[in-house]
Amino acid sequence: MAILVMFAVNERWTFAGRGAPGFGPLAHRLGRSHLVRSGGVSLQLAAYWLLTRRLDITVVAAGIDVWFLVASVVAIGAAMLVNYAFEGLFTWRLQRDEAT
Fold it and tell me: How far lies 6's CA from each of 50, 52, 93, 96, in Å?
C-alpha cells in the first residue's frame, strides 16, 4: 500500500505533468516505480545489515546503545535518496525529457 501511495504522490505532485497521459503509460510508470522501490528496499536492507552486522559501532545515549536506531535512519535515508533519484531518471524519464 505504501508503494501505491508514494506512486500516487509522485504522479500527482512531485512529477506532475512529466508522464505521458493515458492508462498504458500510467501502468508502465507504475511498473517501473515498483522496480525502483524494490531496488530501494534491497539497498535499505543491505545497508542496515552492513551497518549492524559488519561494523562494530556503539552509540550510547542515556546509557543505552542506540546504534540500531541510528543505522535504521541512515539506511532509510540512503534508500530514500536513491528512490527519489531513480524515480526521476527511470520512472518519469526526466533526463530524457529535458534533453529533447
Answer: 26, 28, 17, 22
C-alpha cell at 12: 500527482
pTM greater than 0.85 (yes/no): no
Backbone phi and psi for residue 60, each to the nearest 5 degrees, phi listed first = -105, 130
Confidence of residue 20 (pLDDT cuts 50, 70, 90): confident
> Using one digit for the tens of pLDDT, what is the confidence trace for 22-62?
999 999 999 999 999 999 999 999 999 999 999 989 999 99
What is the DSSP secondary-structure string of the chain? -HHHHHHHHIIIIITTT-SPSSHHHHHHHHHHHHHHHHHHHHHHHHHHHIIIII-----EETTEE-HHHHHHHHHHHHHHHHHHHHIIIIIS-HHHHHH-
Neighbouring residues of 37: CB distance < 8 A, sequence distance ≥ 6: 3, 6, 83
